[in-house]
Each structure stands twice: as structure tokens, then as C-alpha cells.
Amino acid sequence: MATLLRSKLSNVATSVSNKSQAKVSGMFARMGFQAATDEEAVGFAHCDDLDMEHRQGLQMDILKSEGSEEGAEPPLEGDIHYQRDGTGPPPPSASKEAQHGVHFVSFQGMFVLGLPYAILHGGYLGLFLIIFAAVVCCYTGKILIACLYEENEDGEIVRVRDSYVDIANACCAPRFPTLGGRVVNVAQIIELVMTCILYVVVSGNLMYNSFPNLPVSQKSWSIIATAVLLPCAFLKNLKAVSKFSLLCTLAHFVINILVIAYCLSRARDWAWDKVKFYIDVKKFPISIGIIVFSYTSQIFLPSLEGNMQNPKEFHCMMNWTHIAACILKGLFALVAYLTWADETKEVITDNLPSTIRAVVNIFLVAKALLSYPLPFFAAVEVLERSLFQDGNRAFFPNCYGGDGRLKSWGLTLRCALVVFTLLMAIYVPHFALLMGLTGSLTGAGLCFLLPSLFHLKLLWRKLLWHHVFFDVAIFVIGGICSVSGFIHSLEGLIEAFRTNAED
């Protein structure tokens, strides 16, 4: 009984905390921050939810055993898992969309810093792509959620799938029932690991450009940053880190205002004549990947929609967040480029005067280091679930012992993943190239290609002709942009490897 009482008190405290977070999260959502990519990260919070559900599952076993005894009281409502059919009440974490929103805002802020560089090589066409990517990602997000639902025997629309992986597996069934899910998992792991690498790269870049007089190279700064991040390998959940998410988001919001304020102070010197309609054929495809990567959130949308208190508002939320995000990103990129024109660097804060650059960059480095655990923990969760914990189909033994503790070799694998992100950051210290490659490879695939393909596959009988036209057009255009951007980004990476090898 004492255990149940403590659980009830804990649930009440959690509910109060979630309500306060929901107000702040809703404020940011209305200001245009999307709910999950970094810049950028709704789904990363989902991994903490998995950990929470695991612990609640263990607690449920205890409660069931106690409840089965004669005279025992039934379990409290807060300890019963939420059922999709509505037969069970939601758990204490039912308002998880608040945490998702905060984490998503944290993830989306950093990579906006690369958008002015995309305008450098794309001009007005780059601005058009920022708008076009917002429209397409909004549309594909909606059709992806539509793939979660089907009509039952009574003609009612019910949710029969819970994740991107479920949708992919449904499209490949019955011949290859797990192939689609594995493809999505691979794409998700690549994107998450590349996000971790980008955090290390941007940390080294910002510190090196903030203190150019110190005898410390960018690679050395990256090593120092990784040393700070090594404890991430010991994380069991993200509760400690998530407490800093809102603070990081507020800090980055202030930094964006400072950058825009500085640009506005130089409005008389804006180089409007530098913004043209021609494009750099070699580097513009990389810019496409940068822009797409700043919108990648489709992988997290099923979790977000499933945790909304009113899923019917999902379409409205998608419309307003993408409109606001498009306006904010477009203005930020244009204003920053007009200020520095051809001198625009891969990370726009490197263009700031030395008097304020160091302060701004230190805050950004702190945000990058505190944001790193989110994609890292998510990548570890996907790897462990798909390779080590998939029952009899697992490729390797479980990383955890019978007592739930992480085995030594499992910890070694986590440390190896941290070291891998460092090695990539050292050998390819190019923020724009890595963003372009990730956006072209996994971003375009997860945001453009797969949603339109799944929509045609699962709902083609109910689609109107204009929906079919949009899906086919998005698939073709997305495929062309993906292949073009990937080839040019890969060429840039190969050249970078050669340069580093010569050095």
C-alpha cells in the first residue's frame, strides 16, 4: 500500500510539471518552432519515454502480483498502460507532447546557422527552396499520419499503426514483412549519428573561430568536446539532460535575436545586388541538402500525433508551425546573407565581430554539447532494440544482464560510438558538407520519397487524382534532389579526405 501511495504522489507531481511544460511548449509551437528535428527533436524524447515505459512495465508486474493476492486493492489508474482502443486511461506521461515539443525546439535551433550559407550558393532560388521544402514537408507529414489509419468493418477511421517503422513494414508485407522497418531504422540511425557528428564539428568550429590566437587547432577543440561528451555512454535515461532542454532553447532564441539585431544595425550596407538568380552548379545541390535537413521531422511525427490530447488538431499544428518556421528561417537566412554577402561562412556566427563572437559561440557550444545526448541516446536505443533486443531474431546477445545493468561490452560499444563521431568530425570538419550529405541521403528519403511512396501504396484506392499527382511529383522531384545533392556532397567529402590525408 505504501508503494502505491508513493506512486500516486509521484504521478501527481509529474502531472503538475507536465502542465507547466505544456504551456511553455505551446508558446514555442505557436511561435513557429517545429516539434522534432534539431534544429532540430521530438523523437529523441521518445527514447526517454521508452525507458519510462520499461520501468512502468516492471512496476506493473509488481502491482499485478500484489493485486492477485486475496484482499489486495486494484492498481491505481495512473499505473495502467494507455490502450490505443481507449479501454485504459492514460499514464502519468500522457502529456508527453510537452516534453516532445521542448526537445524538438532544442534540436531545430542549431542547424539554422547553416541556412545563410545555402543562400550564398542559391540566391533567390535558395529562398524559394526554403518555402518549397516547408510546403512539401508539411504535406508529406500529413500523408504519413494518414497512413497510420484505416477503416474498420463499421466504416470508422481507426489508428492501426504507431510508428514510421509500422507503416514501412505494412507496405512491404506480406513478402518482406520486416524489410521496410529495417530500411527506416537504418536511415534513422544514419541521421541520428550524423547529427551527433555535426554537434562535434560545430563545437570545434565555433571554439576555434572564437579563440584564433590560442595554439589549439579545430581538431583539438573537437577532441576536447568529445572528452566532455564521453559520459553520455553511461546514460541510462535522459531525465537529467532534458532539464536543460528548455534553458538551451531560450539561450539559442536569444542568440538568434542578437544575430538578427546586429544584421539590422548594418541594414544600410546590405548587399542586395549580391542576391541573384544564378546558382553555383557545383555547390547548390549541397545547399538543397542543408535546407531539407533543417526540416526533417517526419520520423518523429507518428509519436507526436499519437501523444496529442486532440489528434484532430494535428493538421492545424502542422500548417502553422511550418508557415512560421518557413518565415523565420527565410528571414534569418536572407538577413544574414545580406549582411556578409560573399563572405558568408558555413556557420554564420563566425562572421560576427570578435568582440561578441566569442560570447555567442560559447553559448552555442554549450547548447550543442547539451543537445548531443538526445540523438546519441536515440541512436543507441535503435541499435540495441534492432540488433540486441529483438528476441530470437537479434543478431547479437543482449547488452543488458538479468538485473537490467549494462554489460561491459555494451558499454564499450557506446564508447565506440562516441569515438566514431569524433573521428568523423576530425577527418571531415565541414559543417555544410555533412549537413548537405545527411539532408540529401536520409532527409530527402524520410521527408519526400518514403511518405509519398507509402501513401500511394497503402491508400491508393481512396486517393483523388490531385493527391496521386502530388505524391508522384514529390517522389520524382525528391529523388532528383536527393541523388544530385548526395553526389555533390560525396564529392566534397572525398576531396576533404584527400586534403586531410595530404596534411
Automatic annotation (TrEMBL):
Q: Does the keyword Transmembrane apply?
A: yes
Q: How does it sit in the membrane?
A: Multi-pass membrane protein
One biological process term from GO is:
neurotransmitter transport
Question: Which GO molecular-function terms appear in the entry?
Answer: gamma-aminobutyric acid:proton antiporter activity; glycine transmembrane transporter activity; L-amino acid transmembrane transporter activity
Which residue ranges traverse the bilayer? 125-149, 189-208, 244-264, 284-304, 316-338, 358-383, 411-428, 434-456, 468-487
Matching entries from InterPro entries are given as:
AA_transpt_TM
Q: Where is the signal peptide?
A: none
Question: In its keyword annotation, does this UniProt entry include Cell membrane?
Answer: no
Instruction: Extract the Pfam families matched here.
Output: Aa_trans (PF01490)
Q: Catalysed reaction per UniProt?
A: glycine(out) + n H(+)(in) = glycine(in) + n H(+)(out); beta-alanine(out) + n H(+)(in) = beta-alanine(in) + n H(+)(out); 4-aminobutanoate(out) + n H(+)(in) = 4-aminobutanoate(in) + n H(+)(out)
GO terms for CC? cytoplasmic vesicle membrane; inhibitory synapse; presynapse; vacuolar membrane
Source domain of life: Eukaryota
Q: Where does the Amino acid transporter transmembrane domain start and stop, copy by copy?
A: 105-489
- Predominant location category: membrane
Which keywords label this protein?
Cell projection, Cytoplasmic vesicle, Membrane, Neurotransmitter transport, Synapse, Transmembrane, Transmembrane helix, Transport
Where do the record's region annotations for Disordered lie?
Answer: 66-97
Query: Where in or outside the cell?
Result: Cytoplasmic vesicle membrane; Presynapse
Family, per entry: Belongs to the amino acid/polyamine transporter 2 family.
What's its job?
Answer: Antiporter that exchanges vesicular protons for cytosolic 4-aminobutanoate or to a lesser extend glycine, thus allowing their secretion from nerve terminals. The transport is equally dependent on the chemical and electrical components of the proton gradient. May also transport beta-alanine. Acidification of GABAergic synaptic vesicles is a prerequisite for 4-aminobutanoate uptake.
Q: What is this protein called?
A: Vesicular inhibitory amino acid transporter
**Organism expressing this protein natively:** Nyctibius bracteatus (Rufous potoo)
